[in-house]
Amino acid sequence: MRRVVVTGMGAITPLGNSVEETWNKLIHGESGIGKLTRFDSTNFSAKTAAEVKDFRLSNYIQVNERHRMDRFTEYAVASSIMAIQDANMIPGKTVHEERVGVSFGTAIGGIESFENTYKDLQNGGYQNLYPFSTTTVISNMAASQVAIAIGAKGVNTCVVLSCASGSNAIGDAYRAIQRGDAEVIVAGGSEASLTPLGIGAFCAMGAISTNPDPKGACRPFDKNRDGLVMGEGAGGIVLESLDTALSRQAKIYGEIVGYSTVSDAYHITSPAPGGEGAVRAMNGALSESRLTLEDIEYINAHGTSTTYNDRFETEAIKSFLKTRAYDVPISSTKSMTGHMMGAAGAVEAIFTLLAIETGIIPPTVNLHTPDEACDLDYVPNEARKTTIKAALSNALGFGGHNTALLFKKFEDRL
């Protein structure tokens, strides 16, 4: 199996329209959550969201392509172009375009276009529909439009696994490069579901925070948490075989050394008691990595700020780390980005890699009254400087999906 490294990153998030801006605000504990402005939320229980601000697709591609893309596709294209540029990679020149692939995930896809298309149908029948209505809605358009934008003619896949989608897209890309199916894959996740239907469905479920204070609404592991805050955006990373990266003297952010995805087979919304699926995912990622528990020095938790997730993920981490559970720092960056759904795992993979590279662990903000059942080291409210050899990024999704990605600092030898 070939070694796989990360050589480029791009991000569109509620904290900023670049990795640098996002990371700088994240480690300083700034929140991207604010008042919901996309539509009139007067009759909705949720009044807050983590919205992307000041985004312009024209900064990345020709604007005449915009009408063919839902917002979630726009974010995917932008983050992928940034990642390719960061990696100094030009498909067709740096690497043969048929050896460059795309693996992009989303939980919900083009829900904004779906809602607008339905309104057009109601107002004027099918004759009133935009000819590209179908292709703005379907979930694989992020992966497809990314490939078109960067000229990638290799493997192209779309992952739809709820909130684990971005993580699985990265993991599947890792596997494809290991097998030799590609030399380079742009992988990640994207979401743009801050719409009446997207927000309303979570309100109806009772899973969303009704806290009137936007900055304090998302409170992972805090006793006074009352639900998640929905976010949006995209994260893209360039995964590359080590041989290819070394041959072109690419900057290497880190190495991916473990990936596991398993099912709870328990419930469509609640994790299994004790987080047993998450335990198996973390153990699976570790078992293929040639690392030991002692090497794990940070975990970026799924940490949604919901009762069951935070409690069961805590129990899962305890089961996984055993005697080291109270010694390993953990943080939920959703406290600042909101829950970016299908984009969450990809953006949090970027945060995990940057924590390894910089030695800075981002905090869990709004953690002031710890839940008695959540008693680990969640790096409350202030970032922490340390050294990190290896770190896990956890992602859990509706339907019982559990995914773990394991990254380590790059070394010439394992």
Automatic annotation (TrEMBL):
Parts forming coiled coils: none
Pathway noted in the entry: Lipid metabolism; fatty acid biosynthesis
Tree of life domain: Bacteria
EC numbers on record: 2.3.1.179
Keyword list, A-Z: Acyltransferase, Fatty acid biosynthesis, Fatty acid metabolism, Lipid biosynthesis, Lipid metabolism, Transferase
SMART domains: PKS_KS
Pfam families linked to this entry: ketoacyl-synt, Ketoacyl-synt_C
Domain Ketosynthase family 3 (KS3): 1-409
A molecular function GO annotation: 3-oxoacyl-[acyl-carrier-protein] synthase activity
SUPFAM superfamilies linked to this entry: Thiolase-like
InterPro entries in UniProt: 3-oxoacyl-ACP_synth-2, Beta-ketoacyl_synthase, Ketoacyl_synth_C, Ketoacyl_synth_N, PKS_Beta-ketoAc_synthase_dom, Thiolase-like
Catalytic activity from the UniProt record: (9Z)-hexadecenoyl-[ACP] + malonyl-[ACP] + H(+) = 3-oxo-(11Z)-octadecenoyl-[ACP] + holo-[ACP] + CO2; a fatty acyl-[ACP] + malonyl-[ACP] + H(+) = a 3-oxoacyl-[ACP] + holo-[ACP] + CO2
UniProt family annotation: Belongs to the thiolase-like superfamily. Beta-ketoacyl-ACP synthases family.
PANTHER family, sorted: 3-OXOACYL-[ACYL-CARRIER-PROTEIN] SYNTHASE, MITOCHONDRIAL, POLYKETIDE SYNTHASE-RELATED
The protein's role, per its UniProt record: Involved in the type II fatty acid elongation cycle. Catalyzes the elongation of a wide range of acyl-ACP by the addition of two carbons from malonyl-ACP to an acyl acceptor. Can efficiently catalyze the conversion of palmitoleoyl-ACP (cis-hexadec-9-enoyl-ACP) to cis-vaccenoyl-ACP (cis-octadec-11-enoyl-ACP), an essential step in the thermal regulation of fatty acid composition.
Annotated protein name in UniProt: 3-oxoacyl-[acyl-carrier-protein] synthase 2
Organism: Fictibacillus norfolkensis
